[in-house]
Design goal:
By secondary structure, the protein is of the alpha/beta class. It has 16 helices and 15 strands. It has a ten-stranded mixed beta sheet, sandwiched between helices.
Length: 458
């Protein structure tokens, strides 16, 4: 009896649970892969939808109502349930499990928050795991991007995670433009599962040329970093150059584009009709790997078969550098988060200032003077002592400030915003000095105090 590789897939959160559920279904349909699955979630209703996962293989943590799309809530729920999580995984993790897969969506609160805790738990149990994660669409909210950025960073740094495989959601539209979104997700999951299944099949398939075996497949994930799956199939009569098609196979997929030259380890199986594998073509394949991956751990299997009408390229690249998509995600998450924080701060300031309504008659201190000529800018000001031994020259600084604020003419600012504006646009840092400048700008008619501590630039 052939001892096939055994996988344990742990689905985390909504997306991860769905992937694990699909993995189990595909493995059962294929009947060539031994796949145990389980799921951990903070949402009880969502956990119940995974019908291919046995009820005993599900763990509910936290409130049972979800993580409010907030990685911190997912993380806290996992920390508070560390003991339960460890006992749960220990029960699921039989000694004959060869590869542990974590599946999750990095845009959600549960997956991004729970995954680092689960990875560390797996490490404590003396094992490591491979994470298969989905990257949010670029059009998703700032919260999703922040969840993903924080989650991937923690998962990447965890010693319990050997490899991270990124599924790029933005590619779904290009690959499946007319499919329902749920169908597109299922196709992605199917591709991921079929890559492992097809490699297992090849590892058990005899070949008169080079071949790979299951021990090599198991060992490929020992190289830490990012990883990608290649699963490319085409009609054999369309293949003119096997090596050229090979180069396209690892970036022509739904997984995040990578730099193959940065890989530490590669396992690849190429299958097709016999006429594709002349000595010249096989030499070109080997040269392609050598040119890109000289000095790296490359395991290659070549499987010619007389009656095949298609050619397939199936492989895994591990120990990769951080993909460009992840760098872009980190930058966008930071930028959009900072913009969001500024918006919130402005709302808080506005609320603090109130609506400006009063039943008492108020005097609007708005001093609109005649336009000031350039000659008046040059009139001497007295030096105002700020601190002992230090003098602030109004005659030198006020014209600078006038030029700096001219572009904001007509805008209304709070006292705090005006100080920040002057600090950002000039080299004046001291708030006492700025207070003197603001007073002089009012005297000259460049600032009007429309209500207490609120100014209009005129």
């Amino acid at each position: 009896m052939i001892n096939r590789l055994k996988f344990l897939t742990i689905g985390l959160g909504h997306c991860g649970g769905k992937i694990a559920d699909d993995f189990k279904k595909a493995a059962m349909d294929k009947k060539g892969m031994i796949m145990d699955v389980c799921a951990i979630n903070t949402d009880g209703a969502d956990l119940a939808t995974h019908t291919n996962i046995p009820e005993d293989n599900k763990l509910l943590i936290g409130s049972g109502k979800g993580a409010a799309k907030n990685w911190e809530e997912g993380y806290e729920a996992a920390l508070q349930n560390e003991t339960n999580i460890k006992a749960f995984i220990s029960r699921m993790l039989s000694p004959d499990v060869d590869i542990i897969l974590l599946t999750l969506g990095e845009g959600g609160g549960t997956g991004s928050g729970v995954a680092p805790v689960v990875a560390e738990t797996i490490k404590e149990l003396g094992r490591t795991c491979v994470a298969i994660v989905t990257i949010p669409f670029e059009t998703e909210s700032v919260k999703s991007k922040v969840n993903a950025a924080v989650g991937i960073d923690m998962l990447y740094r965890s010693e319990g995670t050997n490899a991270i495989i990124c599924i790029e959601n933005d590619k779904l539209t290009a690959y499946y433009p007319d499919r329902l979104l749920t169908e597109a997700y299922e196709k992605v999951n199917e591709i991921a599962v079929s890559t492992f299944l097809n490699l297992i099949d090849l590892a058990n398939l005899p070949s008169k040329a080079d071949r790979i075996d299951e021990s090599e497949l198991k060992s490929i994930f020992k190289y830490p970093g990012f990883a990608t799956l290649a699963n490319f199939r085409t009609q054999a009569n369309l293949v003119e150059d096997v090596a050229a098609t090979l180069r396209r196979s690892w970036n022509g997929s739904l997984f995040a584009e990578i730099n193959p030259a940065s890989a530490a380890g590669v396992i690849f199986g190429i299958e097709g009709p016999t006429h594709l594998f002349t000595t010249t073509q096989v030499d070109a394949i080997r040269r392609t790997f050598h040119e890109i991956l000289a000095g790296k751990d490359v395991m290659l299997g070549i499987y010619p078969s007389e009656h095949l009408r298609w050619a397939s390229y199936i492989g895994i690249l591990t120990g990769l550098d951080i993909p460009k998509k992840i760098h872009g995600l980190l930058d966008k998450a930071k930028t959009e988060y900072q913009q969001h924080e500024k918006t919130i701060e402005a709302k808080i300031r506005s609320k603090r200032e109130g609506l400006g309504f009063s039943l008492k008659t108020s005097t609007v201190h708005e001093k609109l003077t005649r336009p000031t000529t350039h000659r008046e800018f040059e009139k001497p000001f007295k030096s105002v002592p700020i601190t002992e031994g230090i003098h602030f020259d109004l005659s030198r600084e006020v014209p600078k400030v006038i030029r700096a604020i001219e572009q904001y003419k007509g805008e209304t600012l709070t006292h705090e915003e005006l100080i920040n504006l002057i600090q950002n646009e000039t080299d004046i840092e001291d708030e006492k000095s700025i207070a003197k400048v603001i007073l002089e700008l009012q005297n000259l008619g460049f600032l009007a105090e429309v209500r207490k501590n609120v100014y209009r630039i005129v």
